[in-house]
Specification:
Order of helices and strands: EHHEEEEHHEHEEHEHHHHHEHEHHEHHEH
Structural class: alpha/beta
CATH topology: TIM Barrel
Shape: globular
Strand order of the largest sheet: 1-2-6-9-10-11-12-13
CATH class: Alpha Beta
Distance between the termini: 6 Å
Length: 408
Protein backbone atom coordinates (compact mmCIF):
# COMPACT_ATOMS: atom_id res chain seq x y z
CA UNK A 1 0.00 0.00 0.00
CA UNK A 2 1.27 3.46 -0.91
CA UNK A 3 0.46 5.94 1.83
CA UNK A 4 0.01 9.65 1.28
CA UNK A 5 0.08 12.72 3.50
CA UNK A 6 -2.33 15.53 2.66
CA UNK A 7 -2.54 19.12 3.88
CA UNK A 8 -5.78 21.09 4.00
CA UNK A 9 -5.49 24.73 3.00
CA UNK A 10 -7.61 27.80 2.28
CA UNK A 11 -7.35 29.91 -0.88
CA UNK A 12 -6.71 33.14 1.01
CA UNK A 13 -3.55 31.56 2.43
CA UNK A 14 -2.30 30.95 -1.10
CA UNK A 15 -2.85 34.65 -1.76
CA UNK A 16 -1.03 35.78 1.40
CA UNK A 17 1.97 33.43 1.33
CA UNK A 18 2.21 32.89 -2.41
CA UNK A 19 2.07 29.66 -4.39
CA UNK A 20 5.82 29.04 -4.38
CA UNK A 21 6.25 29.46 -0.62
CA UNK A 22 3.28 27.24 0.16
CA UNK A 23 4.43 24.45 -2.13
CA UNK A 24 8.04 24.64 -0.91
CA UNK A 25 6.85 24.48 2.69
CA UNK A 26 4.53 21.51 2.31
CA UNK A 27 6.99 19.61 0.13
CA UNK A 28 9.63 19.93 2.86
CA UNK A 29 7.15 18.46 5.34
CA UNK A 30 6.45 15.32 3.31
CA UNK A 31 3.10 16.38 1.84
CA UNK A 32 1.94 14.52 -1.28
CA UNK A 33 -1.47 16.15 -1.72
CA UNK A 34 -3.06 19.56 -1.11
CA UNK A 35 -6.78 19.77 -0.35
CA UNK A 36 -7.92 23.32 -1.01
CA UNK A 37 -11.27 24.80 0.01
CA UNK A 38 -13.38 25.82 -2.97
CA UNK A 39 -16.80 26.40 -1.35
CA UNK A 40 -16.87 27.26 2.33
CA UNK A 41 -19.13 28.42 5.14
CA UNK A 42 -18.19 31.06 7.72
CA UNK A 43 -14.95 31.14 9.68
CA UNK A 44 -12.70 33.41 11.70
CA UNK A 45 -9.13 32.19 11.78
CA UNK A 46 -5.81 33.08 13.39
CA UNK A 47 -2.58 32.39 11.50
CA UNK A 48 0.02 32.34 14.31
CA UNK A 49 3.17 32.05 12.15
CA UNK A 50 2.61 35.43 10.49
CA UNK A 51 3.30 38.96 11.71
CA UNK A 52 0.74 40.42 9.28
CA UNK A 53 -2.58 39.14 7.91
CA UNK A 54 -2.85 37.19 11.15
CA UNK A 55 -6.64 37.36 11.52
CA UNK A 56 -8.89 36.29 8.65
CA UNK A 57 -12.66 36.50 8.42
CA UNK A 58 -13.74 34.27 5.56
CA UNK A 59 -16.51 35.40 3.25
CA UNK A 60 -19.45 33.32 4.40
CA UNK A 61 -21.19 30.78 2.17
CA UNK A 62 -19.47 31.63 -1.08
CA UNK A 63 -17.61 29.86 -3.87
CA UNK A 64 -13.96 30.90 -4.02
CA UNK A 65 -13.46 28.86 -7.18
CA UNK A 66 -15.15 30.37 -10.27
CA UNK A 67 -17.87 27.94 -11.35
CA UNK A 68 -19.38 27.72 -14.82
CA UNK A 69 -22.41 29.82 -15.69
CA UNK A 70 -25.56 27.74 -15.55
CA UNK A 71 -24.08 25.30 -13.01
CA UNK A 72 -27.16 25.56 -10.80
CA UNK A 73 -30.84 25.13 -11.66
CA UNK A 74 -32.37 26.68 -8.50
CA UNK A 75 -30.39 26.98 -5.29
CA UNK A 76 -26.98 28.46 -6.00
CA UNK A 77 -23.98 29.90 -4.23
CA UNK A 78 -22.49 33.31 -5.09
CA UNK A 79 -18.85 33.87 -6.01
CA UNK A 80 -16.53 35.36 -3.41
CA UNK A 81 -14.21 38.29 -3.99
CA UNK A 82 -11.42 35.76 -4.53
CA UNK A 83 -13.35 34.16 -7.37
CA UNK A 84 -14.07 37.56 -8.89
CA UNK A 85 -10.72 39.30 -8.40
CA UNK A 86 -8.30 36.38 -8.61
CA UNK A 87 -9.95 33.81 -10.90
CA UNK A 88 -6.56 32.38 -11.87
CA UNK A 89 -5.69 31.30 -8.33
CA UNK A 90 -6.80 27.69 -8.75
CA UNK A 91 -5.37 27.10 -12.24
CA UNK A 92 -2.14 28.79 -11.10
CA UNK A 93 -1.92 26.50 -8.07
CA UNK A 94 -2.87 23.43 -10.11
CA UNK A 95 -0.08 23.99 -12.62
CA UNK A 96 2.55 24.76 -9.97
CA UNK A 97 1.55 21.77 -7.83
CA UNK A 98 1.78 19.44 -10.81
CA UNK A 99 5.31 20.68 -11.52
CA UNK A 100 6.34 19.74 -7.98
CA UNK A 101 4.54 16.41 -8.01
CA UNK A 102 1.87 17.51 -5.54
CA UNK A 103 -1.66 16.25 -6.23
CA UNK A 104 -4.52 18.74 -5.84
CA UNK A 105 -7.99 18.02 -4.44
CA UNK A 106 -11.02 20.31 -4.25
CA UNK A 107 -12.72 20.59 -0.85
CA UNK A 108 -16.32 21.82 -0.73
CA UNK A 109 -18.97 22.34 1.94
CA UNK A 110 -22.48 21.27 0.94
CA UNK A 111 -25.42 21.60 3.33
CA UNK A 112 -23.82 23.75 6.02
CA UNK A 113 -25.01 27.00 4.47
CA UNK A 114 -26.74 29.60 6.61
CA UNK A 115 -27.27 32.02 3.73
CA UNK A 116 -29.27 29.51 1.70
CA UNK A 117 -31.19 28.32 4.77
CA UNK A 118 -32.26 31.90 5.52
CA UNK A 119 -33.09 32.75 1.91
CA UNK A 120 -34.92 29.46 1.33
CA UNK A 121 -36.48 28.42 4.66
CA UNK A 122 -38.44 25.67 2.92
CA UNK A 123 -35.07 23.99 2.26
CA UNK A 124 -33.86 24.19 5.86
CA UNK A 125 -34.21 21.71 8.71
CA UNK A 126 -37.55 21.83 10.57
CA UNK A 127 -37.59 20.73 14.23
CA UNK A 128 -40.37 19.00 16.13
CA UNK A 129 -41.76 22.35 17.34
CA UNK A 130 -42.13 23.71 13.82
CA UNK A 131 -39.06 26.00 13.94
CA UNK A 132 -36.74 26.29 10.97
CA UNK A 133 -33.06 26.12 11.79
CA UNK A 134 -30.84 28.43 9.77
CA UNK A 135 -27.53 26.58 9.95
CA UNK A 136 -28.24 23.76 7.54
CA UNK A 137 -30.20 22.46 4.58
CA UNK A 138 -32.18 19.21 4.61
CA UNK A 139 -30.71 16.31 2.59
CA UNK A 140 -34.20 14.87 1.92
CA UNK A 141 -35.37 18.04 0.14
CA UNK A 142 -35.31 17.48 -3.66
CA UNK A 143 -34.13 21.02 -4.36
CA UNK A 144 -31.32 20.68 -1.83
CA UNK A 145 -30.28 17.35 -3.27
CA UNK A 146 -30.17 18.86 -6.76
CA UNK A 147 -28.05 21.74 -5.44
CA UNK A 148 -25.58 19.38 -3.75
CA UNK A 149 -25.15 17.24 -6.85
CA UNK A 150 -24.78 20.33 -9.07
CA UNK A 151 -22.28 21.87 -6.65
CA UNK A 152 -19.86 18.95 -6.61
CA UNK A 153 -20.28 18.34 -10.33
CA UNK A 154 -19.40 21.99 -10.99
CA UNK A 155 -16.28 21.79 -8.81
CA UNK A 156 -15.19 18.57 -10.52
CA UNK A 157 -15.93 20.00 -13.97
CA UNK A 158 -13.22 22.66 -13.59
CA UNK A 159 -10.69 19.91 -14.21
CA UNK A 160 -8.20 21.07 -11.59
CA UNK A 161 -8.74 18.26 -9.11
CA UNK A 162 -8.06 14.53 -8.98
CA UNK A 163 -10.40 14.05 -6.03
CA UNK A 164 -13.27 15.99 -4.50
CA UNK A 165 -13.60 16.14 -0.71
CA UNK A 166 -17.29 16.52 0.21
CA UNK A 167 -18.12 17.83 3.66
CA UNK A 168 -21.49 18.31 5.40
CA UNK A 169 -23.55 15.97 3.25
CA UNK A 170 -25.66 15.06 6.26
CA UNK A 171 -28.33 16.11 8.76
CA UNK A 172 -26.31 18.63 10.75
CA UNK A 173 -27.01 18.68 14.46
CA UNK A 174 -28.30 21.69 16.35
CA UNK A 175 -25.73 23.85 18.19
CA UNK A 176 -23.94 25.47 15.32
CA UNK A 177 -21.40 27.50 17.27
CA UNK A 178 -22.07 30.64 15.21
CA UNK A 179 -23.82 33.00 15.68
CA UNK A 180 -23.76 33.37 19.45
CA UNK A 181 -26.18 30.78 20.84
CA UNK A 182 -27.88 31.19 24.18
CA UNK A 183 -29.52 28.28 25.96
CA UNK A 184 -29.91 27.49 29.61
CA UNK A 185 -31.75 24.19 29.38
CA UNK A 186 -30.20 20.74 29.12
CA UNK A 187 -28.54 20.19 25.74
CA UNK A 188 -26.72 16.88 25.91
CA UNK A 189 -26.56 13.91 23.55
CA UNK A 190 -30.24 12.91 23.82
CA UNK A 191 -31.84 16.35 23.85
CA UNK A 192 -29.57 17.55 21.07
CA UNK A 193 -30.55 14.63 18.84
CA UNK A 194 -34.27 14.96 19.48
CA UNK A 195 -34.13 18.70 18.84
CA UNK A 196 -32.11 18.14 15.65
CA UNK A 197 -34.57 15.71 14.05
CA UNK A 198 -36.00 17.17 10.85
CA UNK A 199 -39.76 16.88 10.35
CA UNK A 200 -40.02 18.84 7.12
CA UNK A 201 -42.57 17.61 4.54
CA UNK A 202 -39.91 15.61 2.70
CA UNK A 203 -38.59 13.81 5.79
CA UNK A 204 -42.15 13.24 6.92
CA UNK A 205 -43.12 11.77 3.56
CA UNK A 206 -40.07 9.50 3.51
CA UNK A 207 -40.88 8.29 7.02
CA UNK A 208 -44.55 7.67 6.26
CA UNK A 209 -43.56 5.76 3.11
CA UNK A 210 -41.50 3.51 5.37
CA UNK A 211 -44.45 2.78 7.63
CA UNK A 212 -43.50 5.20 10.42
CA UNK A 213 -46.10 7.16 12.35
CA UNK A 214 -44.12 10.37 11.93
CA UNK A 215 -46.78 12.62 13.45
CA UNK A 216 -46.78 10.58 16.65
CA UNK A 217 -42.97 10.52 16.77
CA UNK A 218 -42.81 14.29 16.30
CA UNK A 219 -45.28 14.82 19.13
CA UNK A 220 -43.40 12.38 21.35
CA UNK A 221 -40.04 14.08 20.70
CA UNK A 222 -41.47 17.48 21.59
CA UNK A 223 -43.11 16.20 24.77
CA UNK A 224 -39.93 14.48 25.89
CA UNK A 225 -37.90 17.65 25.38
CA UNK A 226 -40.45 19.69 27.33
CA UNK A 227 -40.50 17.08 30.10
CA UNK A 228 -36.77 16.81 30.59
CA UNK A 229 -36.12 20.53 30.21
CA UNK A 230 -38.71 21.49 32.81
CA UNK A 231 -38.61 18.64 35.32
CA UNK A 232 -38.29 19.84 38.91
CA UNK A 233 -35.30 17.59 39.59
CA UNK A 234 -33.51 18.31 36.28
CA UNK A 235 -30.83 20.52 37.84
CA UNK A 236 -29.48 17.49 39.71
CA UNK A 237 -29.23 15.30 36.60
CA UNK A 238 -25.84 14.36 35.14
CA UNK A 239 -25.59 14.97 31.37
CA UNK A 240 -26.35 12.09 29.00
CA UNK A 241 -23.15 10.61 27.59
CA UNK A 242 -24.95 8.67 24.85
CA UNK A 243 -26.16 5.66 26.79
CA UNK A 244 -29.64 7.10 27.30
CA UNK A 245 -29.97 7.91 23.61
CA UNK A 246 -29.05 4.36 22.63
CA UNK A 247 -31.68 3.05 25.01
CA UNK A 248 -34.23 5.50 23.64
CA UNK A 249 -33.60 4.35 20.06
CA UNK A 250 -34.24 0.76 21.14
CA UNK A 251 -37.26 1.69 23.26
CA UNK A 252 -38.89 3.88 20.59
CA UNK A 253 -39.14 1.68 17.46
CA UNK A 254 -40.35 4.60 15.35
CA UNK A 255 -37.29 6.61 16.38
CA UNK A 256 -35.06 3.74 15.26
CA UNK A 257 -36.89 3.52 11.94
CA UNK A 258 -36.78 7.30 11.46
CA UNK A 259 -33.05 7.25 12.16
CA UNK A 260 -32.57 4.52 9.55
CA UNK A 261 -34.58 6.61 7.07
CA UNK A 262 -32.23 9.55 7.66
CA UNK A 263 -29.22 7.34 6.98
CA UNK A 264 -30.83 6.11 3.76
CA UNK A 265 -31.44 9.69 2.59
CA UNK A 266 -27.81 10.64 3.13
CA UNK A 267 -26.51 7.44 1.56
CA UNK A 268 -28.58 7.89 -1.60
CA UNK A 269 -27.49 11.53 -1.89
CA UNK A 270 -23.82 10.59 -1.59
CA UNK A 271 -24.37 7.97 -4.30
CA UNK A 272 -25.74 10.66 -6.63
CA UNK A 273 -22.82 12.97 -5.84
CA UNK A 274 -20.29 10.21 -6.46
CA UNK A 275 -21.86 9.47 -9.86
CA UNK A 276 -21.81 13.18 -10.77
CA UNK A 277 -18.14 13.51 -9.84
CA UNK A 278 -17.27 10.31 -11.68
CA UNK A 279 -18.94 11.65 -14.82
CA UNK A 280 -16.57 14.63 -14.62
CA UNK A 281 -13.51 12.42 -14.12
CA UNK A 282 -12.99 12.97 -10.39
CA UNK A 283 -13.06 10.61 -7.40
CA UNK A 284 -15.23 11.39 -4.36
CA UNK A 285 -13.97 11.41 -0.78
CA UNK A 286 -16.83 11.74 1.71
CA UNK A 287 -16.23 13.30 5.11
CA UNK A 288 -17.49 11.86 8.36
CA UNK A 289 -20.22 13.66 10.28
CA UNK A 290 -19.55 17.31 11.04
CA UNK A 291 -20.63 17.56 14.69
CA UNK A 292 -21.78 14.02 15.55
CA UNK A 293 -18.39 12.80 16.70
CA UNK A 294 -16.67 10.47 17.58
CA UNK A 295 -17.24 7.92 14.81
CA UNK A 296 -19.69 5.94 16.95
CA UNK A 297 -21.99 9.00 16.85
CA UNK A 298 -21.87 9.60 13.09
CA UNK A 299 -25.31 7.99 12.68
CA UNK A 300 -26.85 10.96 14.49
CA UNK A 301 -26.22 13.00 11.33
CA UNK A 302 -27.39 10.18 9.08
CA UNK A 303 -23.85 9.12 8.18
CA UNK A 304 -23.75 5.33 7.80
CA UNK A 305 -20.01 4.68 7.86
CA UNK A 306 -20.29 1.17 6.40
CA UNK A 307 -22.42 2.43 3.51
CA UNK A 308 -20.15 5.43 2.92
CA UNK A 309 -17.12 3.18 2.56
CA UNK A 310 -18.97 0.93 0.13
CA UNK A 311 -20.16 3.68 -2.21
CA UNK A 312 -17.58 6.50 -2.01
CA UNK A 313 -14.04 6.33 -3.35
CA UNK A 314 -12.69 7.43 0.01
CA UNK A 315 -13.89 8.02 3.57
CA UNK A 316 -12.35 10.80 5.68
CA UNK A 317 -12.49 10.41 9.46
CA UNK A 318 -11.82 13.64 11.34
CA UNK A 319 -10.38 12.21 14.55
CA UNK A 320 -9.81 15.48 16.37
CA UNK A 321 -9.00 14.18 19.84
CA UNK A 322 -6.42 15.03 22.46
CA UNK A 323 -5.33 11.50 23.33
CA UNK A 324 -4.13 8.70 21.07
CA UNK A 325 -6.42 6.18 22.76
CA UNK A 326 -9.41 8.24 21.59
CA UNK A 327 -8.10 8.16 18.01
CA UNK A 328 -7.59 4.39 18.25
CA UNK A 329 -11.13 4.00 19.57
CA UNK A 330 -12.42 6.06 16.63
CA UNK A 331 -10.52 3.94 14.12
CA UNK A 332 -11.49 0.66 15.73
CA UNK A 333 -15.18 1.54 15.45
CA UNK A 334 -14.83 2.47 11.77
CA UNK A 335 -13.26 -0.93 11.11
CA UNK A 336 -16.00 -2.65 13.14
CA UNK A 337 -18.62 -1.07 10.88
CA UNK A 338 -16.87 -1.42 7.56
CA UNK A 339 -13.94 -3.79 7.80
CA UNK A 340 -10.43 -3.20 6.38
CA UNK A 341 -9.94 -1.06 3.29
CA UNK A 342 -9.73 -4.09 1.01
CA UNK A 343 -13.13 -5.30 2.22
CA UNK A 344 -14.86 -1.91 2.39
CA UNK A 345 -13.84 -0.61 -1.02
CA UNK A 346 -13.22 3.03 -0.11
CA UNK A 347 -9.83 4.13 1.05
CA UNK A 348 -9.58 5.46 4.60
CA UNK A 349 -8.13 8.86 5.43
CA UNK A 350 -7.50 9.90 9.02
CA UNK A 351 -7.61 13.67 9.49
CA UNK A 352 -5.83 15.24 12.47
CA UNK A 353 -5.41 18.86 13.45
CA UNK A 354 -2.08 20.62 13.77
CA UNK A 355 -3.22 22.24 17.00
CA UNK A 356 -1.17 22.06 20.18
CA UNK A 357 -4.28 21.53 22.30
CA UNK A 358 -4.89 18.20 20.55
CA UNK A 359 -1.35 16.80 20.80
CA UNK A 360 0.75 18.72 23.36
CA UNK A 361 4.00 17.23 22.05
CA UNK A 362 5.50 15.94 18.82
CA UNK A 363 5.19 12.42 20.19
CA UNK A 364 1.47 13.00 20.63
CA UNK A 365 1.02 13.70 16.93
CA UNK A 366 3.43 10.96 15.84
CA UNK A 367 1.67 8.34 17.97
CA UNK A 368 -1.63 9.16 16.24
CA UNK A 369 0.01 8.91 12.82
CA UNK A 370 1.32 5.50 13.82
CA UNK A 371 -2.14 4.39 14.91
CA UNK A 372 -3.58 5.51 11.57
CA UNK A 373 -0.96 3.49 9.70
CA UNK A 374 -1.49 0.40 11.84
CA UNK A 375 -5.26 0.66 11.26
CA UNK A 376 -4.69 0.44 7.52
CA UNK A 377 -5.36 4.07 6.58
CA UNK A 378 -4.07 5.01 3.15
CA UNK A 379 -3.90 8.74 3.81
CA UNK A 380 -3.15 11.09 6.68
CA UNK A 381 -4.64 14.57 6.35
CA UNK A 382 -3.51 17.51 8.48
CA UNK A 383 -5.73 20.51 9.27
CA UNK A 384 -4.40 22.95 8.38
CA UNK A 385 -1.59 24.94 6.77
CA UNK A 386 -2.20 28.40 8.23
CA UNK A 387 -3.59 27.65 11.69
CA UNK A 388 -0.57 25.58 12.76
CA UNK A 389 2.03 27.19 15.00
CA UNK A 390 5.72 27.05 14.09
CA UNK A 391 6.11 24.25 16.60
CA UNK A 392 3.21 22.06 15.44
CA UNK A 393 4.12 22.55 11.79
CA UNK A 394 7.61 21.38 12.73
CA UNK A 395 6.14 18.17 14.16
CA UNK A 396 4.56 17.29 10.85
CA UNK A 397 7.64 15.90 9.09
CA UNK A 398 8.11 13.30 11.83
CA UNK A 399 4.42 12.39 11.71
CA UNK A 400 4.56 12.03 7.91
CA UNK A 401 7.64 9.81 8.14
CA UNK A 402 5.99 7.67 10.79
CA UNK A 403 2.83 7.29 8.74
CA UNK A 404 4.72 6.35 5.58
CA UNK A 405 7.22 4.18 7.44
CA UNK A 406 5.14 1.05 7.08
CA UNK A 407 4.83 1.15 3.28
CA UNK A 408 5.03 -2.19 1.58
Amino acid sequence: MTREVAMLIYPWDIQVDGTAKVLDTVTSLGVDRLQIATVYHSAELISPRRDASVATIAEANTAHLPLADGAFSRLSIPPSSIAQRDPELYPRLSAAAAEQGIALDGWAIALHNSSLAVAHPDAALLNCFGDRFTHALCPANPGVRRYAVELFAAVARTGYFQRILAESVSYLLYSHGHPHELWGARLDVTTRYLLSLCFCPHCTAAGVAGGIDVAALRLKAGRELQRTWNAEFSALRAPDDGIELMSLVVGWPDLAAFTAMRCAQVTSLVTEIRDACSAEGALLDISAAVWARPSASNWMEGVDIGAMRRIADGFVLESYHENVDEVVRDLDHVLALSGPTDDAGASLTVALTLWEAHHRTADGLVSKARAAREAGASSLALYNYATATKRTLGWMAAAAAEFKGGER
